[in-house]
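Continuing the batch. This is chain 6 of the set; chains 1 through 5 are on the previous pages. Same settings as before, nothing changed between runs. Recording input and output for traceability.
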Amino acid sequence: MTAFIEPTGDADISDDIDNEVDDWAPPTKEEYAELVNNLTKANAEAKARKEILRSHGIDIRTGIKAAPVTAAETEGDRRPSVDVVQLQSSAFEQVEAIYSGLDDAGINPKSRARAVKLIKDSLSEGSDIEDEITALRDEFPEMFKRQRTVPVADAAAVGVGQKKAPAANATKTWEDTVRERFNKGQL
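Output for chain 6:
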């Protein structure tokens, strides 16, 4: 049994929605131009403040005095130094050598990323990549493709893949084929 509650006259929802008035109106062209002008000024002031803070060595996000910044960095020259470029190129060459060494060693492609990570983690200044790959092969043989121990016969010598189809009768027409199938009870 459900109870029915009678609405009171004060809580008429449809009257509340109809009586609401939309107070917002879009700005005029002059008001919009003034807003854009104020925004442009504020952005320029914020940029000037950031440059002043950077020149005094204050971190913009934290407000804590940091290491002094050179003039080249405040002018927008964000190119890395020569040492950083050399380190990045040597790291790239090292990873490239690891990939080529693993491919030569016969790494399983599904295990390549894990093997590269293991080798990069285990490399030290004096170690050789080939030695690390050999150690990885000894420790994780499942990462590498198995070498066949039993010689496999050549497919061409055995005759694999050759079909032995009977020679087609070129003089037989489609009518002859239908007649033969009808006589055999296949049609």
